[in-house]
């Protein structure tokens, strides 16, 4: 049984771009005209669309996403601000609707998704179809009220030439037949995504997305919890010391206290060794990248000199 051809998730009559003979997306020689009145080389189009829409990193871990978020849970933009979240604009599709502390990443809606002709010609029947439908569906939840619309225009999340009545008419008609596995879930917690990538896939250093650009912030954010544990253990050890100093002899209690004290010392030493090992690994990784970059610069410089000669 043949799979029916895919269609744009909204009818052509509500397309938000005014399509005429001059602005209709079409191939012209070796370039393709995109909505927004700019061209892109024909052989770069697939890569460009993937960079705008691909969320494979999240779809690949779909069995674990229940740990990071709830199905179909997307708060409108005005509620994001109600929760005092900063809306951080990102051009990385697989960071769209991922939040951390008081920040949430939101990718601006690519204008070409709002053009029915472009969607039908270049996105339908491609591997990016479900990702594109999911992105559109997420925006119908993000922008539900006029206050959401104002926030979206303020942050550049929607094209500024789209009016509120146009958007409401369009959003009601968006009915995707399918979405990618990532968009089955809504907002995802970055901390838990990092845990999934570190403990299930072995990405111990970067996790899913690394927020920090220096050692101080990285270790301060990821290794503050051992200090809290050490503070509690210190309190417990002091209490043990007070009991032993009271003069009431109890061999079983003395033995238990001795074993607990020894275990605490081992845990502390083990944690310190793990942190030191993590630091050395991170340092060596950055050093290798720096040396590789230096060698690449030297190689490029030699190639340029050879061409001049």
Overall pLDDT confidence: 85
Number of helices, counting only DSSP H or I runs of 4 residues or more: 11
Largest sheet: 5 strands, mixed
* Poorly predicted residue ranges: 19-23
Decide which structural class fits the backbone. alpha/beta
Instruction: Please give the alpha-carbon distance between the first and last residues.
Output: 62 Å
Order of helices and strands: EEEHHEHEEEHHHHEHHHH
Describe the 3D structure.
- The protein has eleven helices and eight strands.
- By secondary structure, the chain is an alpha/beta fold.
- The strands form two sheets. The protein has a five-stranded mixed β-sheet. It has a three-stranded antiparallel β-sheet with strand order 1-2-3, with no helix packed on it.
